[in-house]
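Good morning,

Attaching, inline, the backbone tokens for the sequence recovery test we're adding to the shared suite. The designed sequence is right after.
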């Protein structure tokens, strides 16, 4: 049996950022992850970092490569009716912007910092079980290296994603679940080609939504709205490029093609579990909420959660005051629901709705898009939400450690 102050389940952005913040304050933690390091560092997920996320990573001392390689964007294009309209973030959102830097790159930087610090990070663990979370001595049981292990903790942080074990460890009836399943999915590809635009393009089209993004000056990330249960085999490369050209068609602009390195289909959903804590178990990131990718909020919400949690834990371990710890959910949920609303709004505005037989919804969407692109107030609302809202929840719980 071993002991630590905080047992962290999951080595994604939430768990790794939390571990690093605690380590900077001299608080012990052990991170356990069921996948191996190669898988964790290689899985391609989100790539849009809000200004606050970037600032935090730099202040934590893990942002050197991010500053060198991240692509800073000061606006986004909304394209509909074959015409593009730029929303200038820097002008509308107080000089703030976004940075394109893949989640897997953030994870690589955090893992390197964790290993350099010597703090425990265990990959390939099996059968993780959070136990005694209602007591003041919770523990994690798991297998690692073929041996049964028991880790005594003072707090357990569940950062193990939507399909992880931590949320399920909360007794039945203790959490409320709110969920919306969208009637479409995203077909995403990673292509080895220079991006066709300097900024992201959100495209509304009668055939469905499309998104032009990027991961580096040599890698383009592209998405197409599709059926949520559609087989990827139905989308050979030729069909994908043809559909992308059709949806993005715009006079004076052309889409660059290149070898497709990866492709997959992801269903779209919104999900929130409340509260985000039970006893000595605190849930963060995808373990407790999922947002549609349209709003680019998933990774950023995870980082915001653990920023609040880290400050609460620092206060508790250093002074014995559990005020912030008890108020963790209360501090996080306003931001979570604001992000859910923004992601729902963007999703509703851009996607073709399957039940829109007479085109009524499509006309409403075009009217909304036209308003956003012609009204400074509406464009400002989009810009502020996209780069990341500030001052949501309890300010004292949200300060940088």
């Amino acid at each position: 049996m071993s002991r630590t102050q905080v047992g962290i389940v999951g080595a994604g952005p939430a768990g790794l950022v939390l571990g690093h913040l605690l380590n900077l304050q001299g608080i012990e933690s052990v991170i356990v992850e069921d996948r191996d390091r190669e898988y964790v560092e290689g899985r391609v997920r989100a790539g849009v970092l809000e200004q606050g996320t970037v600032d935090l990573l730099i202040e934590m001392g893990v942002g050197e490569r991010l500053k060198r390689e991240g692509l800073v964007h000061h606006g986004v294009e909304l394209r509909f009716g074959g015409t593009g309209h730029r929303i200038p973030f820097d002008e509308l959102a107080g000089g703030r912007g976004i940075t394109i830097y893949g989640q897997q790159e953030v994870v690589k930087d955090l893992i390197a910092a964790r290993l350099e610090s010597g703090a425990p990070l265990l990959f390939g663990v099996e059968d993780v079980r959070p136990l005694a979370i209602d007591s003041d001595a919770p523990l994690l049981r798991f297998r690692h290296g073929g041996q049964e292990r028991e880790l005594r903790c003072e707090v357990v942080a569940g950062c193990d994603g939507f399909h992880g074990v931590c949320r399920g460890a909360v007794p039945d009836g203790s959490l409320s679940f709110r969920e919306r399943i969208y009637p479409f999915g995203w077909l995403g590809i990673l292509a080895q080609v220079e991006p066709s635009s300097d900024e992201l393009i959100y495209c509304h089209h009668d055939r469905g939504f499309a998104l032009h993004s990027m991961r580096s000056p040599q890698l383009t990330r592209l998405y197409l709205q599709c059926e949520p249960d559609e087989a990827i085999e139905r989308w050979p490369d030729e069909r994908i490029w043809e559909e992308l050209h059709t949806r993005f068609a715009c006079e004076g602009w052309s889409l660059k093609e290149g070898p497709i390195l990866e492709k997959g289909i992801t269903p779209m959903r919104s999900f929130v579990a409340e509260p985000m804590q039970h006893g000595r178990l605190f849930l963060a990131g995808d373990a407790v909420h999922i947002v549609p990718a349209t709003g680019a909020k998933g990774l950023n919400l995870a980082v915001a959660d653990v920023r609040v949690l880290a400050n609460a834990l620092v206060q508790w371990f250093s002074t014995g005051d559990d005020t912030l710890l008890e108020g963790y959910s209360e501090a996080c949920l306003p931001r979570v629901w604001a992000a859910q609303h923004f992601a729902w709004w963007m999703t509703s505005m851009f996607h073709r709705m399957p039940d829109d037989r007479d085109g009524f919804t499509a006309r409403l969407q075009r009217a909304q898009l036209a308003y956003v692109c012609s009204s400074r107030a509406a464009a400002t609302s989009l810009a502020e939400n996209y780069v990341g809202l500030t001052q949501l929840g309890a300010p004292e719980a949200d300060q940088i450690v």
